[in-house]
Every structure is written in structure tokens, then in C-alpha cells.
Predict the 3D structure of the following.
Amino acid sequence: MKTSRSAFFAACLALAALPDTGVSASSDKANELYLESCVSCHAFNLEGGLGGNLADGLWKHGSTDGDIARVISHGLPDLGMPAFGKTLSAEQIRSLVVFLREKEKSTKTKSSPPPQPKEGGVVRSIEHAYKVEPVIDADLTTPWSLAFLPDGSRLVTERPGALRIIDADGTLLPEPVNGTPQVIELVQGGMLDVAISPDYATDGWIYLAFADPLPRDEKRAMLKIVRGRIRDHAWTDEEVIFQAEPDFYTSAGVHFGTRMVFDGGYLYFIVGERGGNMQAQDTSRPNGKIYRVYPDGRIPEDNPFAADKKAIPGIWSYGHRNPQGLTIDPRDHAIYSTEHGPRGGDEFNLIRKGANYGWPVICHGMNYDGSPLNAGLTAKEGMEQPLLHWTPSIAACGLTCYTGYKFPNWKYDFFAGGLRGELHRIRVQNGKVVADEILLSGLGRIRDVRTGPDGFLYIVLNQPDRIVRLVPAE
């Protein structure tokens, strides 16, 4: 029986070179491009034959994505590297760049793995030594978000629909809060974020963001935000802060987005694009947007689209895919978010009034099957660039600006979680990212990251479902 050369290449590369992307080698179009164009010189494992090593991260002719794309397109005639600009489209070359970045990260992780702390063991990071300390180790079901009350108790949401209370002595109460809103657990949707009013001591408001089922068709849902109070372990006084029109509800189970933060008398929150792609560019549709409203849901008159009769007036920025991290830098009140890309291209963004963040017109990733995304564009006039993007994806989820006192050298650094298990410490100076340190990995899927009022850094985990915190080892 004959075996075709391309099938043989595919089998070998699947075993030796394909990064862990969740896509099989046989269906990965970026893998196919590598086999067709690169394998004869750079080998199945990308470590080089006639050509150089493409997996070690040592880019001799420029290390940026643009440098790598230029070499693929124009070649290196003096070194025998052919030019592929006439046989591969710009979109295909972009897919190859993402593929190479995935392999580069995989190789680096194997040779120099990030810290994988054991509880009680000391981890020495660049700025601080820390330990991981358990907070809640059992009896949680897909916890999603954490919030702190002035009396020392905490609230935690569970994606299937519950709002739970951790009392001031650290005990998780067995019964959820009674009477919370009806929630649909639709793939990625469910009970999602919880936030506490900045004036909670006087007004008692608690805000919930969740997947709201359409009454006449419960298979369709959209993100909804309400506020209410807890009295005698029951949810009361509910008021709607944001709810989309029924026509915008969809059966798509992805990209609900969402986080909520307060600053300067306003509430900011995220609505993911719900799989709607170009709908994120349409300001008459609610999805793929970050909003600014007053805490009672009223619209500020100076919002960027408040005077546009065709636009939704609460929109603050647009062109978002699926942001699941949102925080404020208290020094200058700047808003930052982290956003899921597709396969590659997760983003850390500074959120500006009225700005367009490009999805899906521009993106630093590609489709999950390795095919190019739209025109393969990573930049376009009038669209914002991320301060930082991650390829391969970290599956960005949860973001905090550290404002505590237990780790003084981390003050005002950003901590970004990822569902692939990494916690990143990001430092921004003069509008630029100057540090991106992987602080830990291997504890589970990081769903939320919060600065606690006690100065510790809290992490909400899935698989296993638990809450831990980082405490100083000194």
C-alpha cells in the first residue's frame, strides 16, 4: 500500500511538532502550509535541516511578527531561503507566523517552564517571593467571580447560577443566596460577574452580570446586568441596569464576555460579541462593546455615541471579541481590559473613549483550524493596537491592578489570568508594557484575579474549582 508524501509529512509533524492548540494535525491548515512550504528545509520538528531552527526563538533576521513575515515573503537569497510572496498570500504567511509562534512558546515552556507552585512552597519571582495559600478548597461549582464586602465576607458566583457567601471567618455557607435572577448555563454563559457598589456601606447595592434566557425561547440568551440587595440571605430590591432588546438574543453559546468596574461615579461593563463577528463593528448592536453608564443605568450625556440616534448610547468602546478582564488604574483612572483572541492574538488593551478595537477586521491570531482570519490584517488606520498581545493564546480571563500593601514592589502592576493556567504580571510605564512575567502556572484554569482588601492577591480557579491567594513568603 502506498502512503502519499503529504500524508507521511502530516503524520510525522503531528507527532513531533504540532503545538497543543486543540486542533488535530489532519485538519490544521497552518500545519498543512508548513508541510507544503517549509518542512523540506526546517524538518518535521522545526529544528532545522538545510534551514535554520524555527523553534528556539532565536530569530537571526528580526524577531517581530513583521520581520518573520518579511523573511517568508521575500526570502533570503544569499542563504538559499526562497521567497514565498508569489506563491503564498499575505493571509497564509500570517497563519505561518502564528504557527511558528505557537511552536516557539511550546519549546520555551519545555526548556524553561514557568513556576508551578506547591501550596506552602516558596516561589521566588522577579520582584517578590510568595506562597500559595488555600481559601476555599471544596464545594464550589465552576466559580467565576469574587467580590469583597466591607464586613470581611465575600461573594462568589458559580456559573450554573448560584451566588454564594463566604463569611468573615472564611467559611463557605452551604446554601446559595435565595431568589437570585433566573440564569441559563448556555455553554460559556451562566452566572458570571459580581461587583459591589463603591457606596455599599450606605446603599447596599450588589451588581450581577449573567446569561439571561429569553422568556418565550429559553434556548436564546444575552448578557443582562441587574443590581439588588441581600437581606436575610435572600436577593431583594432588584433593578435592571442593562438588558438588550429581544431581537438581539441568540442561541450562540459563546463570548458573553463581561466584567464590571466602578470609577468616577460610573459603571463600566463588557458585553462580548456572542459569536457575531462583524456585529462588534456595528454601534447599533449591543455585542462586542464596553459600556459606561451611571450606577442606576442612566446614560451619561458625554458618552461618545450618546448623540447618535442609530447607536446604543451606553457604548464607550467597540470592536471587541470576548473581553473577560476589566480594571482601573487608580493613579490616572485609565481603563484596561484583557480579551480573548481566536487561535492567538489575546490582547491587553488600554480602553479609550469611542475607540474601535478592530475585531474582526484586524487581529493578531488566526482561525482555530489554522486558516487565515479575514485578510490577515493586524493593523488598520482608525483601529487601536493592543499594548500587548499573546500568541499562542493564554485564554485571558480576569484582570486586576494591584493596589495592596503586602507586595510593595508589585504596586500598580497588572495581574492577568488565563484559562490555560498562567498568571501574568504586567508592568506599564509611560503607556508601554515594560514587563510581562509569568508568575505561576499549573494550579488550574484561572477564572478571576482580585486584589483583596487585606493586600493579598486572590485567584479563582476552575478544574479544580477552588479559591487561593498569594501571600508573601518573607
